[in-house]
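Q: I'm building a small set of examples for a reading group on sequence design. Run inverse folding on the following structure and report the sequence directly after it, with nothing in between.
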C-alpha cells in the first residue's frame, strides 16, 4: 500500500493524530498500514477471548476508547486528559489514534469507566491485563489495586474491594517505560534504525474483567507424558481452603475419553490410551474441562485443551545428536518472526491479521518459527498449537548492566516460562540472543531446564555460546553454516539468509536495506533455493539439525522479509520456497 493510500485510509476512517476527548477515534496518518486497519473500530477492537487455555464464558472486554494524558514522570494525577486512545494499541502506533513517543521523563496515564453487571454482585471481580510495557500502577476508584513491572507477561488484580456499589467504576493506569534504561525490551528503540525499531509503550494487549467464585481456579499446568500415555494436570487455586478436589475430563473429537478426580493440592494424572500425538503434520489437540469442587458442590469450571507430544534430544542412525519430536528426528526449518506491524507496532491490527503471518509461514512449507526477542499474546501461541508450528521462544533482551537489571531479566524470564509453558507448540526456550545483555549463562540455562525439563534450552543463539543447554548455535549471513554437533547438544543455525528486496509502494521508508540485496522476485526465489540446497548439504555432512531464515516480514527500514511489511506481497514464489523447505525437512531422515 502506497504512502498516500495510508493517508487516504486515515481520512476515510476520520484520520487525525491527536483527538479531543469528545471526538470519535481516528487512526493517525502513519507511513504504512495493513489491509486489516479498515476492520479496526472502537466497538470491535480485539473482541476475541484472550486466554484460550483457560476459558470462562462470563467476561467483559475493556478494549476500546480510554482517556489518556502524558505528564511528567513524578507529576500528580492529571486534572484533565488530552484525548482518547484506542486500547490495546501502544501510544506510539498509528492505530492508537495518538502516535506519540513516550520518553523516560514522562508518564502515560489511562482512564476509563465501566459498570459491573448485577449478576456479578456476589463474586470476586478480577481485572486482567494481557501485557503493559513496562511499569504499571493500577487504580480503581482512586484505590491502588496493584503494581506490575514487565512488558511481556499477563497479570491480574483482584479489584472486588475497590468497587463501589450502585455506580460507575473508574480505572486509571499509570505507565512508565524508560525502554533503553535496562528492562527487557527486545528490539524496541526510541531512536529506531537498522535492526532496532519503534518502541511500544503502555497497554498493548487486551484488558478485561472476569467474575469468579471466591475459591476458584487460578492457573492450570498440563504436562504430557508420551512415554507413559498420560497427562499430568496441576492447578493453582485462589483462596484455597485445602479440601478442594480437581476433576479433569478429556474429550477427543467431541466424545469423552477419560475422567479423573483427586485432591486439588496434588493434581491428577489422566491416562490417554493410544494417544494421538501432536506434530506439524498432525497438530491434534485434546479438549479438556476442569472442575473445582468441595464435596458435591462445584465451585468453578473452565475449558481448555492440551496436546500429547514430546520434544527431546536423541541420536540418528549415524550417531549424530539431533532434536526428536515424539521419538523421531525432525529437521526444523522456519523464519525469524519479529512480530512488528506498521500500523500497530507490537499489536497486530486484528486477530485475523496475527494469524495470517502464521498461515503464510505454513504455506511456505516451514514447520517452525522463531519468535524473536518478543513474547506474543496467548492467541498467537494458540494459533501455532492449532496450525502445527514448532516455536523457538526467545527471551526479550535487556542491557543487564546493573544488578537490578539482571534481577529484572531473571524475573521476567521466569514469568515468560510460567505463563506460556502450557502451549505444545513451544519446543525450545532461547535465553540470550547474540550476547546481548548476556550474563550468568550457564546458571540461567540450568535454571530454565530446572523450571521446565520438558523442553529444549538454547543458552545463546549466535556467537556467544557458553557450552550449556541442548544446542550449539551459530548465525551467518547469508550463510548457511553449521557448528559441529556435540555428544549432548544438537547443531543449529539460529539465523541465516537476509535476502533483501524492497518493493515500491510497500515500504516504511523510501530507503531500505537488506543483508544481501536482491534485484527481483525471480532472483530472490532462486537464491533462496540455493541457500536451502547448501543447508541440506550441511544436514547430511556436518549434522545440522535446524535453520532459521531471516525473516518472515520486512520490519520498518529492513527489507529482509519474505513478505512486505504491510503483508500485501509474498516476495518469492511460494510454491518454490515451500518445495525447498520440505525437501530440507524430509531428505536424509
Amino acid at each position: 500500500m502506497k504512502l498516500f493510500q495510508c493517508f487516504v485510509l486515515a481520512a476515510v476512517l476520520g484520520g487525525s493524530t491527536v483527538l479531543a476527548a469528545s471526538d470519535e477515534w481516528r487512526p493517525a496518518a502513519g507511513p504504512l498500514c495493513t489491509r486489516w486497519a479498515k476492520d479496526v473500530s472502537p466497538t470491535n477492537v480485539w473482541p476475541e477471548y484472550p486466554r484460550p487455555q483457560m476459558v470462562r464464558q462470563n467476561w467483559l472486554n475493556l478494549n476500546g476508547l480510554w482517556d489518556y494524558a502524558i505528564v511528567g514522570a513524578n507529576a500528580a494525577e492529571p486534572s484533565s486528559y488530552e484525548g482518547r486512545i484506542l486500547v490495546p494499541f501502544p501510544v506510539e502506533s498509528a492505530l492508537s489514534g495518538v502516535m506519540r513517543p513516550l520518553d523516560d521523563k514522562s508518564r502515560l496515564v489511562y482512564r476509563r469507566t465501566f459498570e459491573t453487571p448485577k449478576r456479578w454482585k456476589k463474586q470476586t471481580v478480577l481485572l486482567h491485563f494481557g501485557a503493559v510495557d513496562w511499569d504499571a500502577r493500577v487504580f480503581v476508584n482512586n484505590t491502588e489495586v496493584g503494581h506490575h513491572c514487565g512488558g511481556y507477561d499477563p497479570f491480574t488484580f483482584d479489584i472486588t474491594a475497590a468497587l463501589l456499589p450502585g455506580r460507575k467504576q473508574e480505572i486509571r493506569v499509570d505507565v512508565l517505560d524508560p525502554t533503553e534504561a535496562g528492562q527487557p525490551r527486545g528490539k524496541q528503540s526510541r531512536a529506531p534504525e537498522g535492526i532496532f525499531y519503534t518502541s511500544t509503550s503502555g497497554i498493548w494487549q487486551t484488558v478485561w474483567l472476569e467474575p469468579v467464585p471466591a475459591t476458584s481456579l487460578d492457573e492450570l499446568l498440563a504436562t504430557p507424558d508420551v512415554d507413559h500415555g498420560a497427562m499430568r494436570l496441576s492447578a493453582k487455586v485462589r483462596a484455597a481452603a485445602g479440601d478442594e478436589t480437581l476433576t479433569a475430563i478429556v474429550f477427543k473429537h467431541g466424545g469423552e475419553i477419560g475422567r479423573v478426580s483427586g485432591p486439588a493440592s496434588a493434581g491428577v494424572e489422566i491416562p490417554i490410551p493410544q494417544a494421538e500425538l501432536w506434530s506439524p503434520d498432525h497438530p491434534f489437540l485434546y479438549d479438556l474441562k476442569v472442575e473445582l469442587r468441595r464435596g458435591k458442590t462445584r465451585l468453578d469450571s473452565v475449558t481448555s485443551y492440551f496436546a500429547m507430544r514430546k520434544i527431546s534430544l536423541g541420536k540418528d542412525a549415524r550417531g549424530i545428536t539431533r532434536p526428536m519430536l515424539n521419538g523421531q528426528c525432525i529437521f526444523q526449518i522456519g523464519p525469524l518472526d519479529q512480530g512488528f506491524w506498521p500500523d500497530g507496532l507490537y499489536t497486530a491490527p486484528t486477530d485475523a491479521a496475527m494469524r495470517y503471518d502464521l498461515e503464510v509461514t505454513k504455506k511456505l512449507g516451514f514447520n517452525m518459527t522463531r519468535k524473536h526477542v518478543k513474547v506474543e499474546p496467548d492467541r498467537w501461541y494458540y494459533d501455532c498449537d492449532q496450525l502445527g508450528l514448532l516455536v523457538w521462544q526467545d527471551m526479550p533482551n535487556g542491557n543487564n548492566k546493573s544488578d537490578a537489571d539482571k534481577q529484572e531479566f531473571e524475573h521476567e524470564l521466569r514469568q515468560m516460562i510460567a505463563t506460556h509453558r502450557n502451549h505444545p507448540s513451544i519446543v525450545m526456550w532461547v535465553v540470550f540472543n547474540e550476547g546481548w545483555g548476556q550474563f550468568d549463562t550457564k546458571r540461567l540455562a540450568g535454571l530454565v531446564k530446572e523450571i521446565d525439563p520438558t523442553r529444549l534450552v538454547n543458552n545463546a543463539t549466535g556467537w556467544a555460546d557458553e557450552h550449556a543447554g541442548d544446542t550449539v548455535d551459530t548465525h551467518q549471513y547469508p550463510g548457511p553454516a553449521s557448528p559441529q554437533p556435540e555428544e549432548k547438544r544438537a547443531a543449529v543455525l539460529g539465523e541465516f539468509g537476509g535476502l533483501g528486496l524492497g518493493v515500491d509502494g510497500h515500504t516504511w521508508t523510501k530507503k531500505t536495506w537488506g543483508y544481501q540485496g536482491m534485484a527481483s522476485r525471480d532472483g530472490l526465489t532462486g537464491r533462496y533455493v540455493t541457500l536451502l540446497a547448501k543447508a541440506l548439504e550441511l544436514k547430511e555432512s556436518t549434522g545440522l539439525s535446524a535453520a532459521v531464515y531471516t525473516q518472515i516480514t520486512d520490519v520498518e527500514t529492513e527489507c529482509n522479509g519474505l513478505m512486505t511489511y504491510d503483508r500485501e506481497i509474498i516476495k518469492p514464489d511460494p510454491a518454490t520456497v515451500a518445495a525447498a523447505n520440505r525437501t530440507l525437512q524430509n531428505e536424509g531422515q
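Helices lie at 3-12, 351-363, 378-387, 403-420, 441-451, 521-541, 574-586.
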